[in-house]
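Hi R.,

Here are the chain sequences for the assembly we discussed:
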Amino acid sequence: MPAALIALSLIPVLAGTARLVELNGGPSLIPSDPRFTASPLPVVVHIVSATTYALLGALQFAPGLRSRRPGWHRASGRVLVVAGLGVAVSALWLTLFVPPQPGSGPLLFVLRLVFGPAMATALLLGVVAIRRHDVMTHRAWMTRAYAIALAAGTQAFTEGAGAALFGHSPLALDASRAAAWVVNLAVAEWAIRRHSAARGRRGGRVLAGVGRP
Ligand code: HEM
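And here is the predicted structure of the full complex:
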């Protein structure tokens, strides 16, 4: 699972690394963008927090690591909450105060205004749940927050498919990005339900075994 999640985040993580190199005066591995050159701080905060969140976050889904090294899960979780809030806040900052991405339209603008706060809310609900020792609810909200963030990776695929099917209009770009959030959240909900069903079955087997010789 972590390997698949890291693979999915590789495209935006590598693009972000190339952007940081370019903004730092290094070789232009990707075309420079005057919107970010003029005011690099929001995109730098976004890339650093998103890279930390995507890569470290993937490891939180490794069941072996969670059970063998609970201390690691807790410490890394604290870093991830800060990084995740960094992603959400910088995403809002970029959406509201940096000119919109050329070729995108109002739908993407609205979606970013929805999903930035939605990601922050999911993270905070995950923290509240674990403080109540409600592991299932914690897991569900953290999975949703990660799914929202990782749409940045899924978008690389939905954008290609959207352009092939519907061309290069702003609406096609916005809709293909929206599709990435829909796909990721659908997969997250499926994983959450599958996990709670499996736990229910295990619990049932344990109860059924109680009192047997
Ligand atoms: C871990 C997940 C994420 C990664 C790895 C990531 C990565 C990136 C990167 C590398 C850029 C810079 C693009 C460039 O240099 O051209 C960027 C820009 C941006 N990201 Fe993210 N991002 C993530 C999550 C999000 C989320 C969840 C949102 C919104 C809710 C978001 C909103 C934005 C916005 C608004 C920009 C500016 C785009 C533009 O106007 O060109 N990102 N992201």
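The CA atoms of residues 1 and 63 lie 9 Å apart. Residues 9, 12-13, 15-16, 19, 33, 43, 46-47, 50, 53-54, 87, 91, 94-95, 98, 101, 112, 115-116, 119, 148-150, 152 surround protoporphyrin IX containing FE (CB under 6 Å).

Let me know if anything looks off.

Best,
T.
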